[in-house]
Each structure stands twice: as C-alpha cells, then as structure tokens.
Ferredoxin-nitrate reductase (Maribacter dokdonensis), 701 residues
Amino acid sequence: MNSTKTHKTICSYCGVGCGMLVGVDAKGTISVDGNPDYPSNKGMLCTKGRNLNYVAQDTTDRILYPEMKWSRNHPLQRVSWDAAFERAAAVFKSIIAKHGPDSVGFYVSGQCLTEEYYLINKLTKGFIGTNNIDTNSRLCMSSAVVGYKKTLGEDSVPICYEDIELADCFLIAGANPAWCHPILYRRLEKHKEENPNVKIIVVDPRKTQTCAGADLHLQILPGTDVILFNAIARRLIDKRKIDVAFIKKHTANFEACKEMAYTLTLKEAAKKCGIPVADIRKAAEYIGNAKKFISMWTMGLNQSVIGVAKNVSLLNLSLLTGQIGKPGSGPFSLTGQPNAMGGREVGGMASLLAAHKNLGNPKHRKEVSDFWGGGEIQAEPGYTATEMFDALDEGKLKAIWIICTNPAVSMPNVKKVERALKKAKFVVVQDISHNSETTKFADLLLPAAGWLEKEGTMTNSERRISYLPKVIDAPGEALPDAEIIWRFAQAMGYTGFDYANSSEVYDEHCLLTKGTEIDISGLSYERLINEGSFQWPVPHKTHKGTPRLFTDRKFFTNDKKAHFNAPSTLYNKSEETDNEYPLILNSGRVRDQWHTRTKTGKVKRLLTHIPQPYLEMNAVDAYLRKIKDGDIAVVKSRRGQVQVKVQLNYDIRESVVFLPMHWGKVLNNDFGRANNLTNDLVDPISKEPDFKYCAVEVSKF
Ligand code: SF4
C-alpha cells in the first residue's frame, strides 16, 4: 500500500511560481513533481524545481537554535528563544531611545511569505515609527514598480501567462527567460513551435539561449535600451502603426513621448545602440504588424541607474500600439523572486505603504495607522537597500535585522557592505542556513523554518496568489519567520501582534486591501486551500479572481488614462570606460543556480551544469589581451578585483564581459565574486542599483 501523503504547494525559487505536488512517504522521504492542475506551469518544473526535495531534506547546514554573542569579541553561543527575544528587544529599545527610530532598520527578502512581509512592514512603519524596511526586491524589480506606477497609476502587472499562447509578437528585453524563467519560456517556445508565424525579438548584448528561438536578436551596446525603444516608437509613428483611437481616448501625454522619440534619427539611434538600422526597422515592423503584442523584461532593464527611463520607454510601446487590456497583449515584467509580488502588495519596501496605498498621501497613512492601531507613519521613505548599508557604514544606522537574504554576497560593491556590517552596533540575522555568508556578521542568529516547514501565501509574476501548507516539521528549534516577528514585536511591548497563527495575519492583510485596486478581501486560507489559486483583485467571497487588468481600458491613474512618459535620459552615464577600464561588465544568472547558492549550491545534480564561476568574454577581446580559453584572469574595476576562469566565444559583444552573480567567497578567497566589482550607484527614483554596467579591465593572472 502506498502511504505517501501528497501536498499541493508552490516552488520556492523564481517568480514563475510553478505549482508542485510534494510527497512525503512513511519514512519521511520527500519527493516533488509538477502539479498538472496548476495553471501557471501545467505540471512542468525546471531542473531547480525538480531537485527541491534534496534541499528540503538536507538539514546538514541548518541553523538549529538561537545563538548570541554576549559582546562583539565573543563567539556565538546557544541561547533560548526567550533570551534571544529579550536581548533583541533590549538592544533595539535602547538604540531607539538614544538615537531615534530611524537608527534601526530591517532588510528582508522576496522569498519571504506575504504574511511575514506584512508583519515586518507593520512592525517597522506602524509601531517602531521608521520606514527603514527594505528588501532585496529593491535589487530586482523596483524600477519596474516605478515604471508601472508612472504609466498605469499603480504597480500592476496587467496580463497573465495564458496571454503567451494568444500573442503573435514578443519583445524580450534584458532577460534570458530560457535560463532564468524556464517554465514560462517553455510555454513561449511551444507556442512558437506550434505557430511559426509568431515573432520573437530579443534585446541583449549577449547571444543567450533565449536567442535560439528568436526571429531577431538586437545585440545592443549596454545602456542604450532607451534609445532603441525610442527609435522603435519613432518608426511606429512614422509608419502609422500606432493605435490613434486608443491613444486619443485612453492615454495622456502622447506628445511628450513623441518628442522624445524624435530626439534622434533612426540612423543616429542605430549607431548609438551598435545595431543595424535595418534591424530597428524590422523590430518596428514585427511590433506594428502584430495583432497581439507582449513585451517581457527583467534585470537588464531594471538594474540600472536609468532603470525607470528604460521601463517607461518600453511601456510606451504598449500604449502606442494600444496593446494593453486585451487578451494576448500587454507589458509583462518577469519577477525574479517567488514572492517579490506579495511583498509589493503589502508595501514591504521603504518607499511603499501597505495595500498599494501611497506613502506620500497623508490620508492613506492615517488609514493604515488607524487600522494597525500603532503610531503615526512617517511620510518620508526610509533607507532603501544600498542606502541602508551606506547608513550603517556612516554610523547613522546602528542596528540591522536581516531576514532570509544574503547581502554579504548579493549587494553591489560588496566590500563596502562587509565593512558596514562590521561597523554596525547590532546585527540580527534570521535565516535557515549557515551557508549564508551574512550569518558570519550576526550578533544574534535566529533559526527560521524553511519552505515546507511553515504555512503562508505567495504571489507569482501573473498576480496569482497561492497557499503553501506546512508539510514537515522544522529541524531543531527553528520557528516560522512570521512567529519570530510577532514574538519580537510582543517583546518590544507592542499590542496588535497577538496572533495565534498565520491565517489571522493573512485575514488582516486581506481586510486592509478592501476598497483598493488590489482588493483581496474575498480571499482566505479556506478559499485558497479549497478552490486553488486566485489572481488579484478578488473583492468578494464568490469572486473568481482577475486574470487581466484594464479590460475596460480604465487605468489606475486619477484621470483613468494610461500615461506616456518621456524617459528622463537616453544613456546610462553611471560609469565611464577609459584606457584603464575599457570593458563593460554585465552580471546575471546561470540556469541551475539560485541567488547566492545557499540552497542550489548543495545539490550535486545542479552543479553538473555550471560548477564554477566563469567570465564570458569575446574571443577578440581575449586575443588582444593574450588570454586563452580556460585561463585564469584577473578582473578589476574601480572598486575591487576577482580572479576567475575565462570562457571565450563570439556570442557576447566585443567590449562586454559577463560574470554570474551567484558566487561569493569560495575556499576563503574571492574567486569569481562578481559583487567585488559592481557599482552601488542607483537609479535616482527607483533606487535600484546598476548591476549591469560596470567598467572593468581583464588581464591574464
Ligand atoms: Fe521553480 Fe521557477 Fe523552475 Fe518553476 S521555473 S520550477 S518556479 S525555479
């Protein structure tokens, strides 16, 4: 008799958010499979997802009980949870009393469940009285958030995955979904196989695996995306391939967009982008002739000092063609993390307020503070991700609480982050694994329950909210993150954190959304468990969810129109190349690794794909430096250097090199650690760092 118990859940890696069936047999052995009934992935899983059972079962690296340093020079020692909460609350209270609430901050993760995100946001903004709560989603999607707000009125992904099978033209910019959003890409690939007339345009300085299925690869120079999108806009206008009726009736500010599009001729734009004029014309022809057009993008646009300009110039193309608010059409940001969307919904960033309310709006702030029953919410945004570590470095921020993320590897200009963490008066790290480099900086280390060990909800890239059940017990004394947060809040003496379970937290979050554009007051754990996943909004208890937004062509702006925006700048001017640093470094992901490898790094099967960091370099650039394939090279930027093995090809543009972002310290040296090199300059509005544009030189070791 098969005694395996099966549970429906969601993959804990990327924002595609695939549905899974997790089996646990009588011996406790865990198996995973794709859930054929889950709409986002229809049973498919990529290699990372397929191997999640090894990660869930291996507890060798787990943090098992709270550990505390009695002073900075003492080693971590095991303590009870009560002692840990007592100490954390005492230190936070004393720092806040002496230096004010803005002297403490929380840095969390797009891998947190929505309930955890909600609670930490409530604690920080509503009770401690600071907006210093930010997340690694700042490094990922914040430029897209601002782009959506400026164009559509709110941070709202308009479309759903089903639209992929309905569209006949795709513009994929600054993304490699074949590796980074594999199951979503499989849907697109299949659609193209079945419908050869479907056109795919890829914009990337590298010829990635996504280009294999493309009709047109625009291999642009890094930092020139705005010029390209403006040039496509100009060509669409010139050729009258725009939807005049839609523009007149449903949009505002068209003239500003047009003026910007006409700043350069097509020939000038092509020269700046380093691509043929004919290819820009071809891209505009594909888009202009499409019946249904989807744009997809991710870090190549977002992670830039001009990330917002890149986003709005791309969004303009959907408005020009009227390709939004109807099946098979629309802009589609591909979220990096599994629950970055849920975090955005609860306002889990320094610049946002819960339930998509506006931090700058006094009425909204009062509504939220009245609802929470804490204190007044500050109007000014708190420290964003890079600002938080700058503030630690400068002594303005005294204590930081880091949840489920590894900034000692993932932040740009990471040497500065190390220095800042050493300077901090008090560092709390709440995580599942000792594999995180950041745990080495902890004064207080708190063991968190992992995926399958706690219940909660997540929202994937298509606004689909799903319930994740608790399937197994956490090892040692590890607790769910939500419980750690509410028990700390209780230790601080705050009322309003007297929860019995995550379901109560979720109900509170749902209630706060009532009457907003993301109203999910019709949702509950009960509905999610019994009826399956829902796409927001779900405004009442019999509502079935909303696959597409703006089908009535009414947008979330005050005038209900979609707004064209003139991008504020054309070029990325973050860092000049010169004779000393003549190459541009681009950083990114590889197929089988995830973030800083704390989980994927321990799965042998995943290491067979790419076991080590490597520098991708054009063979011509290498020849000029007498570097051969497989050589160890030194990569230097204005901030630091790394050694790494070189992989040569002709697929990456000359003058551009690529280094994966996953590797931190390996064997106690900085082999391949990309963020020794990267730049911590940020977009002035979204505050997203410039990971994709860093001047370097490469020489043989
Ligand atoms: Fe998990 Fe993303 Fe792979 Fe789906 S595509 S199985 S969500 S990593």
Notes: The chain has four domains: 5-57, 67-140+383-499, 142-334, 583-700.
